[in-house]
């Protein structure tokens, strides 16, 4: 089939083709700008992701250091707790010893230490066992220690003095 195209029709087709080419160039320009924007966005996001990964790696390293410090501190805390437990047991033992000697008394012979006893009745029994009768000793404080042949006195009074001599 043959078609006859007039000059007007050819000019209109030429104008349509030029318009279509211009439109294609505009669309291609817009597509190129969109692609360039997309590439910039990808580049920026990649740079941000790499920076975030570096920051995360630094944070992981810091976390590892903190974990090591925490483990060391926990070990020291466990040691300190063990020491505290040992000291508490020792304090309890010493408290028991202090309680046992809180009522302790000394038996003195002319101001010199003869013996130490847990309480007054024990001191009196000991004195009786060495031949000292009940009327032979006196409580501390009635006359000078050196003038008393036998004397029962609280240990606390004598334990703090140099050489056990309260004078």
Characterization of the model:
It contains 3 helices and 4 strands. The chain is an alpha+beta fold and about 170 residues long. The protein has helices spanning about 5-100, 120-130, 155-160; strands at about 105-110, 110-115, 135-140, 150-155.
Total domain count: 2
Spans of at least 5 consecutive residues with low confidence: none
Strand content: 5-15%
| Sequence of secondary-structure elements | HEEHEEH
Side by side, the strands of the main sheet go 2-1-4-3
Q: Report the count of strand segments.
A: 4
Structural class, please? alpha+beta
End-to-end distance = 149 Å
Shape: rod-shaped
Helical proportion, percent range: 55-70%
What is the chains' assembly state?
Answer: single chain
Number of helices: 3
Average pLDDT level: 84
Outline the biggest β-sheet.
4 strands, mixed
What's the Cα radius of gyration?
A: 53 Å
């Amino acid at each position: 089939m043959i078609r006859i195209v007039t000059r007007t029709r050819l000019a209109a087709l030429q104008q349509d083709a030029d318009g279509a080419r211009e439109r294609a160039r505009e669309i291609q320009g817009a597509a190129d700008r969109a692609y360039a924007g997309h590439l910039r966005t990808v580049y920026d996001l990649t740079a941000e992701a790499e920076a975030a990964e570096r920051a995360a790696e630094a944070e992981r390293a810091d976390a590892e250091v903190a974990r090591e410090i925490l483990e060391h501190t926990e070990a020291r805390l466990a040691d300190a707790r063990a020491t505290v437990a040992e000291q508490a047991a020792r304090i309890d033992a010493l408290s028991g010893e202090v309680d046992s000697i809180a009522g302790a008394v000394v038996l003195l012979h002319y101001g010199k230490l003869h013996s130490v006893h847990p309480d007054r009745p024990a001191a009196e029994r000991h004195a009786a066992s060495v031949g000292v009768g009940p009327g032979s000793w006196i409580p501390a404080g009635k006359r000078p220690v050196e003038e008393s042949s036998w004397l029962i006195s609280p240990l606390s009074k004598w334990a703090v003095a140099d050489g056990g001599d309260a004078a």
